[in-house]
Amino acid sequence: RDAHRFALSYRWVIEQAPLQAYASALVFALAGSLIKACFKAEEPDWIRTKPVVEADWNACLQTLEGHGNSVCSVAFSPDGQRLASDSDDVTVKI
C-alpha cells in the first residue's frame, strides 16, 4: 500500500527523473510507514537536509489535471473503470 501511494504522490518527480526514486524514496517516505521503519538505516547519508514528512497519507489519492478552466461535472462509467469530466473550457476528458 505504501509503495502504491508513494508512486501516486510523487508521480510527477518519477516521470521527470525516474532514477531519483531509488535515491530519495526513503527520505520522502512517510514517518509512520512500514517502508521507512524497515529500511531507515538505508537512507542516504549524503542528503543532509531532510524534509519534514507527514506521519500518514492524507485522503487524496490523485489529482487529475488537463482542463483549461473550471470543471463542471464528473461521472464514472457504469463499470467504474473510467472517469469523465467536462469543463467550462468546452472540453470533455476521459
From TrEMBL:
Which key words tag this protein in UniProt?
A: WD repeat
UniProt keyword ATP-binding present: no
Q: Where are the WD repeats?
A: 64-94
Gene3D superfamilies xrefs? YVTN repeat-like/Quinoprotein amine dehydrogenase
Ranges that cross the membrane: none
| Protein's name in the database | Uncharacterized protein
Q: What is the scientific name of the source organism?
A: Apiosordaria backusii
